[in-house]
Specification:
This protein is mainly alpha-helical and 419 residues long. 71% of the residues lie in helices and 0% in strands.
């Protein structure tokens, strides 16, 4: 073992990503900027997870025009003067809600970039963890607490009958399974319909076609402001899709033992998503660089967290129902699960994160020679690449014709001018 520098934090060594996977914006950042970026990213992500409900609830309240008239008096005057405004607000609210939720991956992706990853794979892995935590905290827990559970608690507070709080909570918590089944079924069917029909890429490509630059063939095929033409689809959003899968696993783990019908609907959702995304990955989306299993490692960690949360929830429900025997059987299972998670996290993640020398040696022996010339010039920033790559394809042919037509004395004058 040896260190690469005697000065702390002056050098950090990691595996080199593939040349087409480098995130050049973060290359060369100082340790101070990386530390500040990590703290800012973690803090803002926590704030976003806890308080995202407030703006979403405001957007959702646009459908309740009567309540908006009471809270915003001048809006009632506008609705009376122009009655179609009420229908417009009712239609606008769901669209704003979808657009508002679509901003979440963009915001969390920006926060993940502040942490300083030098490859897009690590950036997507960090984005996946944030989206998965958001799904667990915001979509699962807050939706559960803001559903029938809070309604039952408010009824108890109004009637002052606190003796029934345990029975009401024990009966209302399992009833949330139907709520999540409806949400995930709508999310699956609606999402797969949009995915297979490619509604979003078609709309964005039309915007790109009529608004972006279209003078030359290169301009028409280039990405403009993050919008790609329809014939050049964007990369598959692995982080967003896999993070949504965490919510499916969370609902299946928690409500599968309570309401077994939940497992049937979750299996139906998985079958539809597997067939839909497999078709899209084979025929539509371009191949992306190998991430080295970064998302898989994060997903396994999130699945373990979901297992522990599900077992704690089951213990709580059995305790509310005063099932002492069931609680006594669940506690050893929870202890074994926690010990298993701690055991796996000791060394298994290291084996999955780095390539063992034995595996690398087998590949090297198959090659019979160590020719590394294919890496020459690959790890160069795009701004430092030779300018010849930016010339048109027929540049060399035109220069050759020009040299043939130019007299020798003219070539000498041109060389002196270029010098």
């Amino acid at each position: 073992q040896q260190i690469h520098s005697e000065i702390p934090f002056s050098m950090e060594v990691s595996e080199a990503p593939r040349p087409n996977d480098i995130y050049w914006k973060n290359v060369g950042k100082s340790h101070k900027s990386l530390e500040i970026g990590s703290y800012v990213s973690i803090g803002l992500t926590a704030v976003l997870c806890l308080f995202w409900t407030i703006p979403v609830a405001f957007v959702a309240s646009l459908t309740e025009v009567e309540s908006l008239k009471q809270s915003i008096p001048f809006l009632g005057v506008w609705v009376e003067q122009w009655p179609p405004l009420e229908e417009f607000l009712a239609v606008l609210a769901p669209l704003l809600l979808i657009a508002f939720n679509s901003l979440l991956p963009i915001l969390l992706g920006f926060l993940s970039s502040l942490e300083g990853p030098i490859s897009s794979s690590v950036l997507n892995a960090s984005l996946f963890v944030k989206l998965a935590v958001f799904q667990i905290v915001q979509t699962f827990f807050i939706s559960t607490l803001s559903g029938s559970v809070m309604a039952e608690i408010s009824n108890i507070l109004q009637t002052q009958n606190f003796s029934k709080i345990v029975d009401l909570l024990a009966n209302s918590l399992p009833g949330q399974s139907s709520f999540f089944i409806q949400i995930l079924l709508v999310l699956t069917f609606f999402g797969q319909g949009l995915e297979l029909l490619r509604v979003t890429p078609v709309i964005l490509s039309l915007v790109r076609k009529y608004v972006g630059p279209n003078l030359t063939e290169n301009e028409r095929n280039a990405t403009w402001l993050g919008i790609s033409p329809l014939a050049k689809p964007a990369d598959f959003a692995y982080a967003d899709v896999v993070a949504n899968g965490v919510l499916y696993f969370m609902v299946a783990f928690v409500y599968g033992p309570i309401a077994p019908l939940t497992s049937v609907f979750m299996a139906l959702c998985f079958v539809l998503m597997i067939s839909g995304f497999r078709y899209q990955l084979i025929f539509n989306y371009p191949p992306t660089p190998d991430s080295g299993g970064q998302l898989w490692i994060g997903f396994i960690g999130m699945a373990q967290v979901c297992m522990i949360i599900a077992q704690i929830s089951l213990i709580g429900i059995f305790a509310l129902k005063k099932a002492a025997f069931a609680v006594s059987l669940m506690i050893p299972l929870l202890v074994v699960t926690i010990l298993f998670v701690l055991y796996v996290r000791k060394r298994h993640y290291w084996v999955a994160s780095f390539l063992p020398p034995q595996a690398a040696l087998k590949v090297d022996l198959l090659r019979n020679e160590m020719d590394m010339s294919f890496l020459q010039g690959k790890y160069v920033q795009p701004a430092l690449v030779s300018k010849e790559d930016k010339y048109p394809e027929n540049y060399a042919h035109e220069m050759e014709q020009q040299q043939q037509m130019t007299p020798p004395c003219a070539e000498t004058d041109m060389a002196n001018q270029e010098a």
